[in-house]
Amino acid sequence: MIKSPIGYNQRQKRTVEALGLRKINQTVVYPDNPAVRGMVRAVAHLIKIEKAE
């Protein structure tokens, strides 16, 4: 997460929380599937996406 969800609507805050992100600069790893891609797309302005090696 690179930006706080404070000031954004409740749906985006819940999506960030559902992804397991609680603090700025926190990292999580998820499998690449349609559900996760949809969540990432909804909050792309708050997070940074990188491909896991």
Features:
53 residues; 0% strand; 2 helices; Ribosomal Protein L30, Chain: A
Can you walk me through this structure?
By secondary structure, the protein is mostly helical. The chain has one domain (1-53): Ribosomal protein L30/L7 (Ribosomal Protein L30, Chain: A). 34% of the residues lie in helices and 0% in strands. The protein has 2 helices and no strands. It has helices at 10-18, 34-42. The model has no long low-confidence stretch (mean pLDDT 95).
Strand content: under 5%
CATH superfamily: Ribosomal protein L30/L7
Q: What kind of sheet is the major sheet?
A: none
Number of strands: 0
List the helices and strands and how they pair.
Layout: H1 10-18, H2 34-42
Would you summarize the structure shown here?
The chain is mainly α. It is built from 2 helices and no strands.
